[in-house]
Each structure stands twice: as structure tokens, then as C-alpha cells.
Amino acid sequence: MLNHNTYFDGNVQSVGFVRNSLKASVGVIAPGEYHFGTAAAERMTVVSGTLQAKLPEGDWQQYPAGTSFEVAANSGFDVRAVGGPAAYLCEYLCG
Amino acid sequence: MLNHNTYFDGNVQSVGFVRNSLKASVGVIAPGEYHFGTAAAERMTVVSGTLQAKLPEGDWQQYPAGTSFEVAANSGFDVRAVGGPAAYLCEYLCG
């Protein structure tokens, strides 16, 4: 029912779940910079720490805990954790 | 730097991290009821879904997303996810 995912040599790890047909995961991003492609659109909410993200055609923006950003389907984003690991909730949005 | 933990045959899974000497994890609890013992005191914050928790000498209480509860050190609590898996942030509190 739950699935563990690991990316970038274990520097990003998440646990995925489905509730009410909503696909989501919570995870942690270690310090560093990473690129994620998106198939479905998704909303990333920072639950602990601080992320910086660069969306397509945008500049780097800072997202402290409690804030979120959305990424279009068939797109991608660059992300980095600053000041230590940051935890997030990723929700996949229905098209 | 990040560590994956699995409990109760994979029905509870988390990713642990440390930031500014704060030890924490994000995880997911599948539907069901579980008991966790605590060594350090901890704060559990629900980040998606709904948890019910029973603290020592207390009754079952409901914690929707955005709410939290704290558990004393050298203690424990019963917890259950209702309506599907629930995601949480667990922060270990310094004594």
C-alpha cells in the first residue's frame, strides 16, 4: 500500500500513498540541487525546512515551511534544500 | 544522511533526517491501529489525511491535517489512520 522511493543516490527519498484516488508522497530532500521531471501536474508543500525551486521560465524562489508551489504536467523543476534537509508533501493533481 | 524506516510489515514507513540538531522524520501510516513507544518526547503533526491518537491516560482524539499532538518521553501512544493513509511529520523534542 505504501511505497518507498529513492532518487539521486538516496539524497531524495519519499514514501508514496493513495487516498481517495489522490496520489501523493511525503519525502525529504538532502542539501544539494536536483532536477525532477513531472508527468502529472503536482503541488509541492514544504512541511519542514526551506526549499528553493526554479520553475520553467522562472527564477529561483524560496519556499519556507508552510508554503507550496505547483508544477505543470509534462514539465519539470529544479529544487534545492537550503540550511539542511527539507521535508515536503507532493500531491499529484488530476488533469 | 537520510534513512528509511519501516514498521508493522511496511504499514508505517518514514524517512528520517536531522537539521540544526533537530531529529525528525516524515512518514505515512496505512489504515489500521498501531502502538509506538517513545524514548525522546516527540511532536506529531498531521500533514495529509486524518489520524486518531490515544495518549497515555487519555481517550481517542482526532487530529486532522494541520494539527499536532505531543507525546512525553519514555511513554507511548496508540495511533490509527482513518479514511485512508495519513502522512505526518514527527519531530523529536529535546529534554
What is the CATH level 1 assignment of chain A?
A: Mainly Beta
**Overall radius of gyration of chain A:** 12 Å
CATH superfamily of chain A: Jelly Rolls
Question: Which class do the helix and strand fractions of chain A yield?
Answer: mainly beta
Shape type of chain A:
globular
Count of the separate structural domains of chain A: 1
The oligomeric status of these chains comes to homodimer
**Which stretches of chain A of 5+ consecutive residues score pLDDT under 50?**
none
Largest interface, counted by CB within 8 Å of the partner chain's CB: A-B, 32 and 32 residues
Q: What's the count of strands of chain A?
A: 8
Determine the CATH topology of chain A: Jelly Rolls
Instruction: Round the mean pLDDT of chain A to the nearest integer and report it.
Output: 96
Order of helix and strand elements from N to C terminus of chain A: EEEEEEEE
Helix content of chain A: under 10%
End-to-end gap of chain A = 23 Å
